[in-house]
Specification:
homodimer; alpha/beta; 7 strands; elongated
Amino acid sequence: MQNQESLAPAVVLVRPQLGMNIGMVARAMANFALDDLRLLAPRDGWPNPDAGPTAAGADHILAGARLADRMGDALAGCRITFATSARPRHSRKPVLTPREAAEKMREAVAQGLKPGILFGPERSGLTADDLAATDFIVTCPVNPDFSSLNLAQAVVLMSYEWYVAGEAPAAPHEADPPAPFNEMDSFLTHLDDSLEKSGYFDVPGRTASTKRSLAGLIAHARFTSDDLRMLHGVIRSLVGRQPD
Amino acid sequence: MQNQESLAPAVVLVRPQLGMNIGMVARAMANFALDDLRLLAPRDGWPNPDAGPTAAGADHILAGARLADRMGDALAGCRITFATSARPRHSRKPVLTPREAAEKMREAVAQGLKPGILFGPERSGLTADDLAATDFIVTCPVNPDFSSLNLAQAVVLMSYEWYVAGEAPAAPHEADPPAPFNEMDSFLTHLDDSLEKSGYFDVPGRTASTKRSLAGLIAHARFTSDDLRMLHGVIRSLVGRQPD
C-alpha cells in the first residue's frame, strides 16, 4: 500500500513546447504541494535550460521529472485520469469543473487510487487520441470570448483546487471586538464637548439631530477600545490641548 | 447608477517590475472577463514593450490600463478594497481566502460598490503602507514551504474565483454604501494635515506607524460619503477654523 504522499496527483504535460512554461508549471506545483511531474514527448527534449529560471526555486520538481514517450508510461501508476480540455463536442466522458475534479481526486486518493492529470500542448491542446483513455474531462469555466488559458495557469488552477479541497475548513476569522458601550459613550461625550466649545453646534441647522447623526456615525464605525484611545488623542491634539 | 460591467473589480498592480508579468496579468484578466487594469508606479514606466507578447491577444486591456502615481488615484472609483498578501503579522484587518473575497466582491457589486484588488511587486509584495487603507487582506492557501506565488498566478486565482462566484447568485444586503476610496483618501489627508499642524506627530513614538494605524482605523469604519462630509466639518471646527 502506497502512502498518502505518493498518491498525490501526477501532473502530465503532453508534448509541452516551451521550457519556460515547464518551469512555471513546476513552480505552481510546488506552491500547492505537488511534486510528481511527467513530461510526455516535450518538443525541445529534456532537460531544457529554459525551465530553470521560471521554476523560481522548484528545482527538485524539475530534477525529479519523469520523461516518457508513450502515454502509458507517462501515466504509470495512475489509476484514475483527468484530461484538461475545452468541452469536447463528441465525447460521452463526464465533464467536470476543476473544483469537482479536485473533489473526485481527493476521494480517489482516500481509496488508494493515484490520479493523473493531463495538460495539452500550448498551441493546440489535447487531441481526441490523448483523451481516449482518460476517465474524466476537466473544463475550466472561462470567458467564452477569451478562452485560451496559458498552460502554467491551467496547472495553477487545477493544483490550487486540489490543495484547497484537502484543507480542513478554516476557522472563521474573528475581527477585533468593538469597544464596550461605556467607552463609546465617554468618547462621544468628549467629542460632543469639544465640538460644543469650538462652536460647531452654533451653526444654524446644527442641532440635536446633528448630535444624533454623529452618535450614529460613531456607533456604525464599531471602533475598538484601541481605536477610541487613539481618537481621544486625536481630538485633544486638534483642539490644541497638550498632547498626552 | 453604473452598470454591472463598470462595477467589475479593478485589478491594481502596485509597483509591478516586469512588463512580461503585466502582459500575463492582462491575459488572465481576459480569461475571466475582467478588463479594468490599473498600474501604480510601474518600475519600467508605461507603456512597456515587454507586456504585449505575453498578453496573447488581451491588447485591449493593456491599451486601456490606467497609469497612476498615487494609491488614491489607482483606486479611484473603488468602494471596497482587497489587498493580496501573505497573512500579515500585525494587522487586525479581516483575512479572507480568494474564494471568500470573491463572494464579498459579488455581494459588493450587487450593492453597487466597485471592488479594487491590490497586487504587490514581484519581489517584495505589498508594504504595510500599501495595506493601511484597504478593507480586507486576501491570503491564498499555499504550501507553507513554497509560498511565493508568481504575480500573474495570484491574479489568475483571484480572477478565477471572481468568475466562478458569478455563476452562483449573490446575496444582496447592507443599506449605506461606504464612500469611494478617493473620498476616504482625501479625508485622511485632511485629518493627517490637521494633526501634523497640531503637533500630534511630534510626540515621541508617534511615527509613520501611527499614521498607518489611523488609516486602518478609518478604513475599518467604512464611513459613507455623508459621514465623511460631516467629519470634515468636525475637524474644521475642532481646529478652530470658521465652521462652514
